[in-house]
Amino acid sequence: MSRRDSSQRGSATVLVLGVCLVAFALITAGAGLGSALVARHRAESVADLASLAAADVLMGRAAGAPCDAAGRVAGRVAGSSGPGDVVVVACHTHGRVAQVSVVARSSGWVGALGAATVSASAGPAVRPAGP
Predict the structure, then answer these.
(1) From 1, 30, 79, 105, which residue has the greatest number of CB atoms within 10 Å?
(2) Secondary structure class of 80 (helix, strand, coil)
């Protein structure tokens, strides 16, 4: 029978706690990254739909002001995912092309790092010159 060295007692407990702490940090970072990616995709979707709504007004398919239509659509789409997390910050029209920029803030601690800003354009297709 061998005797244990008393200086090694409890070292496995410290090792397990260290591994658990590292695992918790990785899981928290992964969840934060996922939250940021969801905010970015939500911003892209809202910007696309808002610019399409503004382009519909410019093309005569809907009534009203183009940027008002973009704001209404963005509010409805963003409202279904959470209040106030996606906001239209800019809307410009150039001829029959509408460009809309939106900002989406991520939830949790990642939101403190910044917001996702996305722009989208919509309008009639431009045909290339040629035969």
Answers:
(1) 105
(2) coil
